[in-house]
Each structure stands twice: as C-alpha cells, then as structure tokens.
Amino acid sequence: MGKVIEATLPHSSQLTDRIQQSDFVDCYAVESQLSPRQAANIIADFPDWARFLVKIRNAVVTKFGLLEDVPDASDKVGFFPVESETDQELIAGFNDKHLDFRISVISKDGRVFLSTWVHPHNIGGRIYLNTILPFHILIVRNALARVHAVNNEIKTDPLG
C-alpha cells in the first residue's frame, strides 16, 4: 500500500466513544512504520499552499466570532493542542463555538491512520464543515503522502 487509501476508523481509537449520528468522521491510511507522534508532526507541518488556505480561513471566520488562533497548550503538534497520547494513538484538536474537532493519528499494523472527527454544534458548524470539506480532503491526503515519503526515506537511509 504505497498510496493513500480511504479506510475505516480503527475500533481501538479513543474517538469511537465520541461519535454521534450527526458527526462527521473520515479516515485515511498509508503504509508507514512511524509512531503516532512522528506522523502527527509531519501531518501538522502544512505545506505553504495549505498554510495559505488556513490564513484565508482565519480572515473569514473571525468575522463570525470563531477562533482565529487555537487555544494555548503546553503540548502541540503544529498548532493543534494534544489531548491524549499512547504508543498507538495521538489525539489533538479543540472545541470552538460552532463545532468540536479532533484528529486521531494511529500507528498500527504497518500503517498510519489519520482520522478526523467533527461534532457540529449548530447550522453554522455544518455550513463551515461543508465549505471546508474539499480542502480538508486535499490537506489530509497530502499529509499522509508526506508521512509515507518520510517513512520511505528512513527505510532507505543507510544510517537510519
């Protein structure tokens, strides 16, 4: 499995207990031996084009009273506060007035799974989610492709 594929959220994920009928959950996977923290650091290190999209998002959402900056936290991957971490899973994200958002990065069976869980609080949260969804998919697929590329660099490095 050298490419990013759509997957099912592993049952072992800590996100499974949160999922309600109206929530959005997606999951993608790629072949990789990286730990959840290693993969999450790569995932959250957005390329310039994705950073540009985040800047546009921030400029728009502040007009609606949504958070421009994520809450402060002592432990973050990129700008996402880390909520919990085990040997197999790292969960990061935050709550805003329109929705709750978490990502799960799981390392299991030679794959890294990246799942996103969104719990909209209101119609604004659902509109926001539907608006960003195409960009979300691009960013997630690109992030996992970068995880796979780094994993391959480590496997082929004679010193690694």
Taking the alpha carbons of the first and last residues, their distance comes to 22 Å
Record the strand order, biggest sheet.
1-2-7-6-5-4-3
- How many helices does DSSP assign? 3
Count of DSSP E strands?
A: 7
Unreliable runs: none
> Which range best describes the helical content: under 10%, 10-25%, 25-40%, 40-55%, 55-70% or over 70%?
25-40%
H/E element string? EEHHEEEEEH
Describe the structure.
By secondary structure, this protein is an alpha+beta fold. It is 35% helix and 28% strand. It has 3 helices and 7 strands; from the N terminus they run ββααβββββα. The chain has helices at residues 36-43, 48-61, 123-156; strands at residues 5-6, 24-31, 76-77, 80-85, 89-95, 99-108, 111-120. It has a 7-stranded antiparallel β-sheet, covered by helices on one side. Strand 6 and strand 7 form a beta hairpin. The longest helix has 34 residues, at 123-156. The mean pLDDT is 86.
